[in-house]
Amino acid sequence: MTDQQTPATITLLAELEGHDDRAWHIAWNPQRPIIASCSADKTVRMYNYQTDTSSSDSDSSSPHLKFAHTTTIPTGHTKTVRGIAWSPSGKTLATASFDANIGIWSQDDDDGEGPSGEWECMSLLEGHETECKSVAYSNSGNLLASCSRDKTVWVWEVHPDSDFECMGVLMEHTQDVKCVAWHPKEEILASASYDDTIKLYLDDPSDDWFCATTLSGHESTVWTLAWEPRNGKYLASGSDDGTIRLWRITGGQMNEVKGECVASLEGHKGSVYSISWTPGKHDSTAMEEDGQERLGWLASAGGDGIVIVWEIIEQIPSGSEKPKLTTRRIAQLNAAHDVFDVNSLVWCPRSGLENVFATAGDDGHIKVWAVNYTSP
Amino acid sequence: TAASFSKNNSLWLDGEDDQDIEGGEENLDIAEDIDQEEIFELIRSISDPEHRSMTLEQLAVVSAPEISFDSVDDGIPSRRIKVEFTPTVPHCGMSTFIGLSIRVRLLRSLPTRFKVDIRVKPGSHQSEHALNKQLNDKERVAAALENPALVEVLEQCLAGATE
């Protein structure tokens, strides 16, 4: 199924069944070998995984991962669980539901020997008026953002003992807000909307959170966002218009934030529902040339069932010119979930598994894949 | 029960038939078996939300020639069906609901490989762009189908279609 002309291939590592309805989203725990998924069946399913050393396959480039279902959280949400996010510590999971609430989940630690018990709802964040679509923790874990069809983005401060304080309600979009995503290093928040725009927000230390800039250019709903993972120099966005745009982000908390569209990736034949960006795996075959910075792999998926992996390289010109991006499609997989839409795609954040990603589909399945270069 | 509720609200058919279809060539054969008339047969008798005794066919909201097919060339036999409907008046406030009822009827009746685009006939509604966008936003459709009040009316309109 992989395009013969691409330099890399995508290999299926595992297929996880179990949801009774459409699977909407997945989240890899950043600290522990756990992957969680959520669904229209209102549950969150969790799997542990480990490297399978018993396999005798000579292809050492693909990790052999064995997954075991550990728990299904019924959640108590009265409607679809649309989005999930782990805190950076890996100890807390947030759920965003169409029932307008955000759930905050963590595990018992009664015996003092580390988290092992049942997942319990520690807090329910109420405030949104209609369906919550997405939830995200900031890099420090001190802030949580949520968004909804009610057109708002909320920023919550995370206090000890699962206590959350609303720091701001941002009413900048004119339509549903589909996705929120934090900058990997700074407290800059991005949101994507049915109103076809992306907005970036900052915290004014002497005042409230505010919208610093609006990125316009997409011709339809912006479904998904992903920051360039190492330094957040770029923001990628995927849209119902079938394209992925790359925006160079300049400025920051100290000065004016701006975004300029520097590339548009075409290849999907329908809505782009999910994108994810990984720093990628460093290996000897991927030597950096002078004046180049490898920005890793961006992967995309959507209603056409296609998964595409793009390599993103920044060319740093001499003199005062602006850097240029080189983008190349390195792998493609058609019908990733047979005839079904792919709703979510997320790279594994854990060391040694940088070339592994998971997808969630309308078939209710979660699939885990590895990307490998086929030739030097 | 919760199970039957969620099944009714599911956006795809849970038919065992689909699960059995694996072979690509077999899929293709079956795909070719479904034509414009059969799609029309599924939606013609949906009742109008405002005039419950009338069907969408009687009100000329739907007609067979407004149903078209596109092959999706993505390596597997998948078919894209486009249904255009014509609101009775250009400011018809029930157009979203009518579009949704057509979508749900087709989602429940057709094998999962079919992708359905629901649109208002060009020039037939003053909010054409907004309507089309809403009717083809899977997240909004999914959320609408978790609204019990809306689903109740929807079931009533679809009931006429199943008899």
Automatic annotation (TrEMBL), chain A:
Family annotation (PROSITE patterns): WD_REPEATS_1, WD_REPEATS_2, WD_REPEATS_REGION
Ranges annotated as biased composition (Low complexity): 51-62
GO BP, sorted A to Z: iron-sulfur cluster assembly
WD repeat ranges, renumbered to this chain: 16-57, 74-106, 125-158, 170-201, 215-257
Region called Disordered, residue ranges: 51-72
SMART domains from the UniProt entry: WD40
Repeat recorded as keyword: yes
UniProt keywords, alphabetically: Repeat, WD repeat
Entry GO terms, CC: cytosolic [4Fe-4S] assembly targeting complex
Gene3D superfamilies assigned: YVTN repeat-like/Quinoprotein amine dehydrogenase
Functional note: Essential component of the cytosolic iron-sulfur (Fe/S) protein assembly machinery. Required for the maturation of extramitochondrial Fe/S proteins.
Entry similarity comment: Belongs to the WD repeat CIA1 family.
PANTHER family the UniProt entry points to: CYTOSOLIC IRON-SULFUR PROTEIN ASSEMBLY PROTEIN CIAO1-RELATED, WD40 PROTEIN CIAO1
Designated name of the protein: Probable cytosolic iron-sulfur protein assembly protein 1
